[in-house]
Design brief:
Helix 14 packs across helix 15. This protein has 17 helices and eight strands. The protein folds into three domains: about 180 residues, P-loop containing nucleotide triphosphate hydrolases (Rossmann fold, 3-Layer(aba) Sandwich); about 80 residues, Orthogonal Bundle (Helicase, Ruva Protein, domain 3), CATH 1.10.8; about 100 residues, Arc Repressor Mutant, subunit A. The protein has a five-stranded parallel β-sheet with strand order 2-3-4-1-5, with helices on both faces. The longest helix is centred in the C-terminal third of the chain and has 21 residues. Helices cover about 55% and strands about 10% of the residues. By secondary structure, the chain is α/β, with parallel strands linked by helices. The radius of gyration is 25 Å and the shape is globular. The structure holds a DNA duplex.
DNA sequence: AGTCCACAGGAAGGGCAGGCGA
DNA sequence: TCGCCTGCCCTTCCTGTGGACT
């Protein structure tokens, strides 16, 4: 091999990792810690399908990173494993409703369900009721028990309402030999309350609530993952403790804890340090937050970017004169600045109504905070502030300035 | 108590791209 | 090819809001 090859150095270098996959939040381990009770309950609700009985629908609640998805996948994995010995026709389907362009509309949801059965469905073009009928015919062509896991079901509900749930449950009353069971996963505890009465009554569901992990539980989880993921002696107890403590501050989010640990390892690797230290966790925390912001901004449509650009511009201008807490602006200010940017780059401006929606979307993404306030006779508007720190704002501004340079 | 402001936000519909079936 | 369907982005129109001001 050519010693000058740019990758030869990488191959020779010692890595802190043994198996990085196990440090991914999507990885389903053989044993899930601190969720024994929830797994038991979930299993006991699903179990009747093994004997040919119908199971109730289930709603799994819990904040981000509390193990809802992983436990559900784990239980279904166990189900599939035992199916081999029982030979029943049970088909679990996992769909993440937050995945844009995958299952974020009723059409796309049914299209995705049909694809799980090996059908080819166009991305658009067919009436939704045709897909509905196709799906119906497909599952009723045999004796099937279909378990549909709808992860982040609240995202789909917010976008298209609860008709899709009603339609899914209604299918059961029409099916002759098959049955559908729905497992909805959500971090919105008020989700059920928002459902229409007729949907609630047709669901006949059970609920499981996942509580956040505490720091000690997170550390247990990290220890087990680290022993499989890192080379022996590469990561110390204090590093695991720090990742656990930081994640515990964020509502006991195990996903965050794993991300911190994995990225800290990547930092150590990149710097050729051989051992993961606490300073790598600090770097990881910064990098994760920065990457999230930059990626979010880059993936926004041009008009949203122009709105954000105008918000940063106003924020920078006021920063010179005011305290941080006073760096707020109103919808009208943002619209004026946005119109100015459009004029300078020759872009057709959208209406204020549309900009109002884009501001709300940026708020949802966590890049800005936009609070509706009333200023008395000076009107009702949104008070807008940047929700990212100065470093991130500068980085985002540099990206946007390049995009909107006249 | 009534007025007024500067929007918020819902509803309806237009225009577009793209796919299907007759 | 045409009519009909979809999702998506957008505009237009409208009503509602809440607190300062008169």
């Amino acid at each position: 091999m050519n010693e000058q090859n740019i990758f030869s150095q990488y191959i020779q270098k010692h890595s802190v990792f043994r198996d990085k996959r196990t440090l991914s939040s999507n990885f389903v381990p053989e044993r899930i810690q601190h969720r024994g009770e929830e797994i038991q309950i979930l299993g006991s609700i699903i179990a009747p399908v093994l004997k040919g009985f119908h199971s109730n629908n289930i709603f799994v609640y819990g904040t981000c990173g509390t193990g809802k998805t992983i436990c559900t996948k784990y239980v279904l994995g166990q189900l599939v494993e035992i199916l081999g010995t029982h030979g029943r026709d049970i088909k679990p389907i996992y769909i993440n409703c937050k995945m844009k362009k995958i299952a974020d509309t009723e059409y796309r949801l049914f299209a995705q369900l049909l694809r799980e059965f090996g059908e080819t469905v166009p991305d658009t073009g067919l009436p939704t009721d045709v897909l509905y009928r196709k799906f119906f015919e497909k599952i009723d062509s045999g004796k099937n028990e279909v378990i549909i896991v709808l992860d982040e079901i609240d995202a789909l509900f917010r976008k298209i309402g609860d008709d899709f749930l009603y339609n899914l449950t209604r299918i059961n009353s029409e099916l002759k030999q098959s049955h559908i069971m729905i497992i909805g996963i959500t971090n919105d505890l008020s989700f059920r309350e928002a459902l229409d009465l007729r949907v609630k009554s047709s669901l006949s569901e059970e609920e499981i609530i996942f509580k956040p992990y505490n720091a000690a539980q997170l550390k247990d989880i990290l220890e087990e993952r680290a022993s499989a993921g890192f080379a022996t002696g590469s990561v110390g107890d204090s590093v695991l403790g720090k990742c656990a403590a930081l994640a515990a501050q964020e509502h006991g989010d195990a996903r965050r804890a794993l991300d911190l640990l994995r990225v800290a390892g990547e930092m150590a690797d990149r710097l050729g340090d051989g051992i993961v230290e606490e300073r790598h966790v600090d770097m990881a925390e910064y990098k994760i937050d920065m990457d999230r912001i930059v990626e979010t901004v880059k993936s926004q449509p041009r008009q949203s970017q122009a709105v954000l650009h105008s918000i940063i511009k106003i924020s920078q201008k006021t920063a010179l004169q005011k305290q941080w807490s006073d760096r707020r602006m109103l919808t009208g200010d943002v619209f004026d600045a946005y119109a100015g940017i459009c004029a300078s780059v020759g872009m057709k401006p959208l209406t204020q109504r549309r900009i109002s929606d884009l501001i709300a979307e940026l708020d949802m993404l966590g890049i800005i905070t936009a609070k509706v306030v009333s200023n008395g006779r000076y009107g009702r508007t949104r008070e807008i502030r940047l929700a990212i720190n100065d470093n991130a704002a500068q980085k985002v501004d540099a990206i946007l300035a390049e995009r909107f340079s006249a």
